[in-house]
Amino acid sequence: MLVGLRRLDVPLGEAAELAGLCADGQCDRVAEGVRAAIATRRNEIARRTRELAGLDAELARLDAALAAGAQPRPLIQVGRKEVGDV
What we know:
It is a single chain. 7% of the residues are buried. The chain has one domain. It starts with a helix and ends with a strand. Helix content is 73%, strand content 5%. It is mainly alpha-helical. Strands 1-2 form a two-stranded antiparallel sheet.
């Protein structure tokens, strides 16, 4: 159970606790814990997916601008400042 929970990206401490409960015959409590862990992991995946979609859009914009002959310096920014202004 521990390996399976870790494969699902459940943190080691939480996975060990849940696996230990099930080994002690308290699998009903494990089901509740696993459902909570699933919700947490899915929320994190959704957040990371949004971040990656934003990054992909920015990379596509940069690639298109560079392909059209734009210079990279004014296109690549750090925060709100251009790289050349750092």
